[in-house]
Amino acid sequence: MSMTGVTLSGNHTEGICCFGNAFLYGNDKNGIANIMSNTLKHTGLKHTALHGLHVASGAKMAGFAGYHMPIQYPLGVLREHLHTRQKCGIFDVSHMGQAWLIGDCQQRVATIAETVLPAEIVGLAAGRQQYTQLLNHQGATIDDLIVTKPSEHKYQDRLYTVVNAGCKDADYAHMQAHMDGVSIERLEQRSLIAIQGPLAETVLSAPIDGVQDLTFMRFKVFDWVTADGTATELWISRSGYTGEDGYEVSVDNAFAVEFTELLLQNPHTALIGLGARDSLRLEAGLCLYGDDLDTTTTPVEAGLLWSIGKRRRKQGGFIGASVVQDNIAHGVNRKRIGLHIDGKAPCRRGTDIYVGDSKVGKITSGGFGPSVGKPVAMGYIDTAHSAIGTAVTLLVRKKHIRAKVGKMPFVPHKYKR
Length: 417
Description:
Elements: E1 2-3, E2 6-7, H1 30-40, H2 51-56, E3 60-64, E4 67-72, H3 77-86, E5 88-92, E6 97-102, H4 106-113, E7 128-135, E8 141-149, E9 158-163, H5 168-178, E10 183-186, E11 190-196, H6 200-205, E12 219-225, E13 231-237, E14 246-252, H7 256-264, E15 269-271, H8 274-283, H9 310-315, H10 321-330, E16 334-341, E17 352-355, E18 358-369, E19 374-382, E20 391-396, E21 399-406
Parallel strand pairs: 5-15
Antiparallel strand pairs: 1-2, 3-4, 5-11, 6-9, 6-10, 7-8, 8-9, 11-14, 12-13, 13-14, 16-19, 16-21, 17-18, 17-20, 18-19, 20-21
């Protein structure tokens, strides 16, 4: 799934992009100027509340999922990537879809949501989040998303969701059609800012005391007073889409610039574009919707069975459950795998995977991994050839490049558990 030359995303709901699944490094590559020129011919692109800040910061902008979004800043994608791994990156992901699912009470909403989503939501503890998927009747993935069960008393009739930018209209329509007794309130008035990297806690806890107490996939509403004395809520989760420790902060559009500029006062922070987000998530082994997940891919094939609780696997009761249960019982014909590639040539999406003369799979995401200093890729391969260490070749421009099936992630996850 793509728009304006930019591949649409996104596992863990943050949304990322690349150009033709190729990462751009430095201040420019020949393709980016042409892409931007073509993009600027488009009309009707939406702006996030931080659009002016991006432009003022020298961002190279492009159309993405109907929004005019920053792809990179003067720092360049390579250095933005490494800055996030070493310090703290600030990402605007406000194009993502935020919404409340509202009903008579929170547990009733959770029960209804479980008829559509395969995750354990009824048993989810208050103040926790869960990664899950929307599935079709073939058990394949319409989208992936995050569902949150707020602990605050005022929100005890609802769940909070974040879905991928390019899928949000279809996602909400699908949910509304299949969730009788639940109303959907879209939160277009709120921005979403991701703060990622080893110094994320230090950066965010300076203005917002208490965020240091959150652990991975925890959620809490914090009160924040702006410079002019206005009180507002920040909805903060300890989560992200880079493999690093970090947070996602939902803030009212009216205060998004002030909040972001407050974070940027810390000398260890930098604005990071969507280009670096792609290379970061790929190194972390995280799926990109539209490439690594789509409407032909089941969660079991994608290696996401961990996101479906044991009770849900056994009892089913969600759309596509019979297919998922059959996958569990009898196995699948293909599996998502990581590829450790010889040499320095990146292998892109669509590259065929061979064992001997037999084509056994295809790369779905690939590029150069700045943190590991070599090409990284993931894709789907016939189950018979999916064992770690299996030698394969990749056909690139009529040349065979050697690789091995390897473990993911390519860099260790650093979530605060």
